[in-house]
């Protein structure tokens, strides 16, 4: 399949969306992206698994990374895409092929080989397996195996933000609290020890928890501690000897992962907590010059990112990173997912201006 | 598979236990029981689903029903059975294959065709689906479709009673309390309304409930109100909009089923309760002559039955019924379930004496 990266960005988005690429099934799209980038002069194109990385080598004093994942959540009867009322509907439109289309069109239309035309060297990263468990994440794999491909002074992750600059991200921690007891026939309940009843006090504690907010670089990060699963019971006539509550803590990036674990253990004192999932947050990192310049170019007031994103992986490598994309994050993973075509145009215009220096504060 | 019903009763129990028969999976055991009973002269054997009924037709003035269920609760790493220190361990040993083994061995060893050898005609009922919701209960099905198969002047249900005569039974009521809420991404938990958190106050109320005791015909019935299942959660990153708690109320037979429902609605005021399962209890019913004669033959003082049992179905049909079996009811549904081999022998001896008239008060 041939991708025309010079097509209008809305059309290009539609082409990308109509190549299904549910996590684990990104090969066809990655092949097409690799082939299309390979036809552009001035780019060094690399491939690892179903991740494609392309870089200029102009020797400019700074490098901007434009990153986006190629995969989508499972299709929900919402492919092929359709255009209606200025919107492109379909799986992956908002999250995040519109952002990927902007980045790819810039690769094909910026004057990459014209001396003085660009303010920064540029790296394009299109990766796989973002919508599944962290262990399979393509950006994580690139960081581990090709650290140098990710180098840069600012990474712009084109996740849906409705055109806002969403800085840094929260961390996320999941623990399972397992409550024990003693089985008995429910007709002789006094002989047992009901594990489900013990969850009452735990859930009351979670319900009463007052989550903290913290402001960093002008961005307010609001935390949350929530039960996301509860499961207990043996049979309808048995006093249960086990009940498990899964708790998700979304924490502000001023806490280290370890501090987040300690906080949850403190809140849930008296209960055994098994950590099942832990990813640190990313500080806003807006002080760094390239980030400040990007924010100025957008003319927007940056806000905190609610939700863990791969900006945390860049932050961990010491690369300032922010989220910026045309999609509406609230539509991500819904059947009704869409992206405003005008928002994609606007995103392309803004990024082009920033990269060429035509747009400054 | 061939069952030797003439084997010593402990061995026969072990054979029955080692044929797994979790509710819904009784066919293999029912087939074996049907085939074995079919080889005995003087018995008319019937089959309905996985229930097997066998009857003598000696024209005697009274008929005793020996009834037991073939199914067990889910296996808890406790099969195959093992013998240790005079005990047979394993799923279904106490509840209630030991009782079934006594009844079946009597079928094979009593002189069913010898004139004058028996005091009563006898009916054997081995049925399915006792350990699950009432709608699937095999005895209920038989009562609805083959009422005449159940006829008798006294039904002895061989549920575990440690060799005691356990009179009547508690009623049982199950309700589901469904808690609602509003979904949101767990990174923006304040936009949602956590249904699992709401279960906290409900479970606390159940944990604090003080159960009543009541004495009828000298038998004390103790009640209990217990959560037996809790289930909530959408995904690890979603504030859940639904959580369901199943509550089981075991009530004394002085409450009607309707009064039991009203009591639970009162205790759980403020929550919507959906009744999923309701079975009335059975009064002790020790006044009827065949019951009094059986009690006298055992030489024991009858006590209240803790647990709803199918004696209530016989009581509903106007057939006096009591529980009598060799297993310890406190071990029913536990991982450590066992039965004393000596208690099975004693149960067989006592019933044989009662049925042949060798044992009287």
Automatic annotation (TrEMBL), chains A, B:
Q: Which residues form the Peptidase M20 dimerisation domain?
A: 171-269
Enzyme class, UniProt record, top EC level = hydrolase
Q: Which Pfam families does the record associate with it?
A: M20_dimer, Peptidase_M20
Molecular-function annotations in GO: succinyl-diaminopimelate desuccinylase activity
Enzyme Commission identifier(s)? 3.5.1.18
Give the record's keywords alphabetically: Hydrolase, Metal-binding
* Protein name, entry field: Succinyl-diaminopimelate desuccinylase
Query: What organism does the record attribute this protein to?
Result: Frankia umida
Lineage in the entry? Bacteria, Bacillati, Actinomycetota, Actinomycetes, Frankiales
């Amino acid at each position: 399949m041939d991708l025309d990266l010079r097509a209008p960005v809305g059309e290009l988005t539609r082409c990308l969306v109509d190549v299904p690429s549910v996590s684990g099934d990104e090969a066809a799209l990655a092949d097409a992206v690799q082939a299309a980038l390979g036809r552009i002069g001035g780019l060094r194109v690399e491939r690892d698994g179903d991740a494609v990385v392309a870089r200029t080598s102009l020797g400019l004093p700074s490098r901007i990374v434009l990153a986006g994942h190629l995969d989508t959540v499972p299709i929900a009867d919402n492919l092929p895409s359709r255009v209606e009322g200025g919107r492109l509907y379909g799986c992956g439109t908002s999250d995040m092929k519109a952002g990927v289309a902007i980045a790819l069109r810039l690769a094909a239309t910026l004057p990459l080989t014209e001396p003085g035309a660009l303010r920064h060297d540029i790296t394009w990263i299109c990766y796989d397996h973002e919508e599944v468990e962290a262990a399979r994440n393509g950006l994580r794999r690139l960081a581990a195996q090709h650290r140098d491909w990710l180098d840069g002074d600012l990474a712009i992750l084109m996740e849906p933000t409705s055109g806002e600059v969403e800085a840094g991200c929260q961390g996320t921690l999941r623990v399972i609290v397992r409550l024990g007891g003693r089985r008995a026939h429910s007709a002789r309940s006094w002989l047992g020890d009901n594990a489900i009843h013990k969850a009452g006090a735990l859930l009351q504690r979670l319900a009463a928890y007052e989550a903290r907010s913290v402001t960093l670089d002008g961005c307010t990060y609001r935390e949350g501690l929530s039960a996301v699963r509860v499961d207990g019971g043996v049979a309808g006539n048995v006093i249960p000897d086990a009940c498990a509550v899964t708790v998700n803590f979304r924490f502000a990036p001023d806490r280290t992962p370890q501090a987040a674990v300690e906080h949850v253990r403190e809140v849930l004192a008296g209960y055994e907590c098994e950590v099942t999932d832990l990813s640190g947050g990313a500080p806003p990192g807006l002080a760094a010059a390239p980030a400040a310049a990007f924010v100025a170019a957008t003319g927007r007031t940056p806000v905190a990112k609610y939700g863990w994103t791969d900006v945390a992986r860049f932050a961990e490598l010491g690369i300032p990173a922010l989220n910026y994309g045309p999609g509406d994050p609230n539509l991500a993973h819904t059947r009704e997912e869409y992206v405003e075509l005008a928002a994609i145009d606007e995103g392309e215009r803004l990024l082009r201006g920033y990269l060429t220096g035509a747009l400054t504060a």
